[in-house]
Amino acid sequence: MTEVSHVTLRLRMLPPCLALYLLAACAPPVDETDTALTQQTFAGDEDDPDSHSQGTQLHATPVRTVMYDEALVQHDGALRVATLKLMRGEIVANMPLSVDGTTPSLMFCAGGAPANETRGCGFIVDGQGVCSPGKAVALMGGDSGSLRNRCTGAPVVRVCAGEAPCEHQGPGYLASANSSFSLNNCPAVTFTCPSSGVYTALAGPGTPNTTWVMQLTSRSSTYPTTRKVLRGEELIGARLRQPSTGPALVVEDVINGNALPNTEGSGMWEPSGHTFLYQVRYTTASVPLCPTGANWAVPVKGLFDLQGTRYESPRGFTLGCDAGVIAKCYRWGYQPWLDGATPGPVTEAHWSCTRMARADYCGQGTSFTLDGTRIRPWDALTPAIISAPSPDSSSNDLTFEAGWNTAGPACLSHLRWKHLTAPCVPLNPPIYDANGNIVNDCRDPNTPYAPGKCAEICDDADQAARYYGSRVFNQSAINTP
Prior knowledge:
With 481 residues, the chain is mainly beta. 8% of the residues lie in helices and 26% in strands.
């Protein structure tokens, strides 16, 4: 019982009301590709580079859900409906394309119509494409069903800016071509991508009302397509939808995380280049989504309820404000998209980190710490995202506090603040014998107390991992008011 006796004094720092909630992290697959973990140097303050300040807020905003569907994006001077998705740490909008109106060139040709691309009838909308504004785009005709990739009927093609069909040399007209000078009897046309980044291609036979076969393709743009993807600064002005009870949100600014300094230490907010931060306000008033801190929010897959429980959702995602621990834990390196297609150890570490950062000892969403309290976190992921502190750490007042999981502390060594005792029923209190030894230590293989009855005690990360399965740990000072 040497190891058990060793912790007697330390456990007397714990109020007997503390205990443990165990929750299972269960989530359906998500749609990202696998990405390798990378280890990072933990950026703290100048005097103690391994430590960081935590906080009491989870989201740091009343908004807990942003919906994927029915968003509105600014495109070509108008608001358009779009569906959102997350790609790593970035919001991406998929805006459906449509054919905007009609024109005489889409009508049937009566007799006497010219047998060339300038005529005003006999065309169909072949498809639509997206491109980079100002860049040269080439459309080429062919026939994948032909051994020689030859077209039938000497087709003609016309390209129009945006989503509206056009007339030859009329509004929106970009270019046209016939197959007179091609060896495979197919047209090829080159034009400059319009400012909208969208074009519409019309095609038809060289001679009106005759049989024709052609397949248009492009190597310098995406053609054909039924959607335009907007991302990065293209989302400025977008309206994001809350559940039905909340007002819409408007995106006022977008910045890559590798361009914004870390507000809590040296380096960038998130240096990988895969994370974008969004400055958002409510549409009903000029009130920012993030009322404290730097007013930047990071998109994170999954949702968190008021009890701090995380769950996967096909309908919505989280915008975590810079001052909240959802964003802090993301910034510290626990980015759920690092897991790839299926939520795994990093997603669980991020969730566990939100419990740790708030000192959520009861696992019910209540914080038992003060904003700005220093902690030193690390993990036992493979490889580690935050490495364990070195024995010769520059701050000797921080000692091992707890091992954490998604439900809260799996085991505890001391409270972060002496006066903030948790009024929950869980971490089981130690039971002492007549000699002052703890007889219900969960680490003791000979304890007569069953799981759920023994005291969840740990003095270091090794014990937290070995006896309680923790993979996220922290040190803190034993603070007094």
